[in-house]
Amino acid sequence: MFELAQLRCFTTVATELNFRRAAERLNMTQPPLSRQIQLLEHHLGVELFTRSTRSVALTAAGRAFFIEAQTLLEHAQQAALAAKRIAEGDIGSVTISFVGSAVYEFLPKVIAEARLNQPHVKISLTEMNTYSQHEALRARRIDLGIVRAPLLQAGYETECLVREPFVLAVPGSHPLASAATVNVQDLDAQPFLMYSHSAYPPFNELLTGTLRSAQVAPEYVQWLGSSLTILALVNAGMGLALVPRCATNVVFKNVVFRDIDLGEGVQSELHLVWRSDNDNPACMMLLEAIRAAVKAETA
Asked: Could you read off the pLDDT of 51-72 as tens digits, one per residue?
């Protein structure tokens, strides 16, 4: 099979229709140039040029091959450029999964920033709970996960992106909505909406454990899978709820948010997780863009 170097020699001669000028353009002498054309003709089994002492002209086969040769060279150049851009993380695709509450504030900002820095990288987003994301990482179905609990296993990297307190969501008609202060003891025996363990294990375990430690026993009326659903039911007057502070970006007419001290270390966290052996350059570049966006947000 012919080589790209032979195609370059051929297209240059076909453009110049002069071996001396073509050799000068290619920074070579005429004998090796003529040899490359002869080898190409031998591989193809056709004559590409008619030659005389005075002129060089393309044959009918040469004219047809000239069009295809130019296309092949253009494709080769595009392939080389694409490989370089992918290696540099400038193009490619990244699949990111996220917990639902990340869309309230964090995710839109970092994705917008990332798209500014890498406009040619395709970002695919999919919503999953934390442990579904862990499984998706193990199966290599996603590149990056935004989760509530880190994946502390060999072969995975975890980085905490956001820490924020929980706030109390209260129906507007509830006495705690207008109380001077609110503390954890005020939650005792109150109708309460809690994250279900199956959907949100990190929040369920943290919050129920915190309330038990404070010897507070709310009346759990619903176990739910998302902050949005919880707030909708608070809005309907069904009970109180503890939600991450970012959830205050969701506006319901009958929901009042109150600060509450749950004790040291009782915080909502978002972690970024990925496989240590992920060799997708676009993923690593996006990771840096997310870090930069988080740093700018918290500065």
From this structure: 887 788 999 998 999 999 998 9
Cβ-contact 89, 118 below 8 angstroms: yes
What's the CA gap between 68 and 62, in Å, rounded? Answer: 10
Please check whether residue 234 is in contact with residue 124, taking contact to mean a CB–CB distance below 8 angstroms.
Answer: no
The verdict on pTM exceeding 0.70 is no
**Poorest-confidence range of 87-91, 94-98, 141-145, 167-171?**
87-91
Residues belonging to the chain: 299
The Cα 270–Cα 284 span in angstroms is 19
SS3 sequence, 248-270? HHCCCCCEEEEECECCCCCEEEE
Question: Which residue type does 236 have?
Answer: A
The encoded tokens of residue 225 equal: 């899978």
The values of phi and psi at residue 188, to 5°, are -60, 130
61: tokens are 């086969």
Match 């996220």 to its residue by tokens: 98
Residue keyed to tokens 């076909």: 14
Of 193, 203, 202, 201, whose CA–CA distance to 224 is shortest? 193
CB 36 within 8 A of CB 46: no
Closest residue by Cα to residue 268 from 177, 119, 160, 175: 160
Strand-strand pairing, 121-127 and 92-98: parallel
- HSE, CB side, 13 Å, CA atoms: give it for residue 224: 22
d(CA 275, CA 117): 23
User: Distance between CA 158 and CA 69 in Å, rounded?
Assistant: 50
| Residue 224, phi then psi, degrees to nearest 5 | -125, 165
